[in-house]
Amino acid sequence: MKKITFLLVTGALLIGLPLAGALYSGNEISDYTEFPPLTMHVEHAPFSWTMFGITSLLILVVILPFDLHAIRYRISSGPSRKADHTSTKFPIWGWFGIALTLTTWFLAWTRLDWFTPFQKYTFSPIWIGYIIAVNALTYKRRGTCLLTNTPIYMLKLSLASAIFWWFFEYLNRFVQNWVYIGISDLSPTQYFIFASLPFATVLPAVMSTAELLESFPQSAAGLQNFIRINTKQRRAAATAILLLASLGLAGIATHPDLLYPLLWIAPLLIITSLQTISGQPTIFSPVRNGNWQRIYIMACAALICGGFWELWNFGSVAKWIYTVPYVNRFKIFEMPLLGFAGYIPFGLECAVIADLLKPAKESDK
User: Fold this and answer.
1) pLDDT (tens digit per residue) in 14-71
2) Residues 267 and 348 sit within 8 Å (Cβ to Cβ)
């Protein structure tokens, strides 16, 4: 399957399936097209201890085996060896990134009268500073980083990132797990520009954080030789997964309270299933040999960025708040505790999109 055909088929499924579900259920399409999205049209189920317990158990079943295996490996292998990297001085431009983030963070969380007209626009410079600082840390450890070695790739990541997150905003219309406040005075054009700027920092932030984690040998130590998942019927299995994920993505419009987690999981399964069917490598390809390192690092990178996203959102004027069915308690900042699990598949989706943007020779490595 040619790349352009692959992208068209993938895009048609990811965009069309939720709409098909909405049409099937007889919902008003206008509910999903309001811009900016201000009206709540999904009534969420109240908190449930039963669902909280089941969801917690499922999350632990997924993540604990990886963490316990990595911990056992570190204990059995003894003290870690010194990282193999080229140590250099922390670059001056890294200090600029730190200063930019700290200054903008201060301005975002205070309510200075003179800064009021600009206060809702602070999220982008906070994250630009973060990206610069993280790349500077990687540069100090390795002597290279994404920002200095592949600036064109970083630009591609930034441009794709805005489209990437607008897609998740689109999916959120069907489940309304988060809503924005402090944007009611923005016109559609103003909102598009206002939102696209911070959205453009998502992929660069996650991929830069992943590169920094990779500079620490112990980040995913032991996970290069873990559970092997290899089947001779890969395409048949991928076809079955594709069908189930497609039904699930359509179902978020018909059963938003039950199927909302598929907002994060289904796109990943659909893309990687199509890649498998068309004979392309996927982020899961190394798992055939038991290598889970990149998957683990990408999940951790997204969780780290997620922590900062929720932190910096907490005291902002224009911000998002969550309305997650069944588990909307025990908040860390504005995010319910179990909601952080969504960052795990999200990190893998970031890697999938980032890989599609790499030159063909590099992406095959």
Assistant:
1) 999 999 999 999 988 988 988 989 888 899 999 999 999 999 999 999 999 999 999 9
2) no
In-domain check, residue 326: yes
pTM of the model: 0.94
Phi, psi of 94 (to 5 degrees): -70, -40
| Encoded amino acid at 242, one letter | L
Q: What is the pLDDT of residue 1?
A: 61
Element (H, E) at 180: strand 178-181
Determine the Cα–Cα distance for residues 337 and 321; give it in Å rounded to an integer: 13
Residue 65 lies in a domain: yes
Provide the residue range defining the domain that includes 329. 34-229+284-363
The Cβ of residue 252 has, within 10 Å, a number of other Cβ atoms equal to 25
Cα–Cα distance, 145 to 127 (Å, whole number): 17
| pLDDT (tens digit per residue) in 244-293 | 999 999 999 999 999 999 999 999 999 999 999 999 999 999 999 999 99
Token duo for residue 180: 């924005």
Give every CB contact of residue 185 below 8 A, 6+ residues apart in sequence.
none
> How far is 327 from 339, CA to CA, in rounded Å?
8
Nearest to 142 by CA among 79, 212, 204, 193: 212
* Percent helix, percent strand, percent coil in the chain, to nearest 5: 70, 5, 30
- Does some domain include residue 293? yes
- As for how many domains the chain has, the answer is 1
138: in domain: yes
Lookup: tokens for 250: 């359509």
How many helices (H) and strands (E) in the chain? 14, 4
Q: How far apart (Å, rounded) are the C-alpha atoms in residues 277 and 162?
A: 28
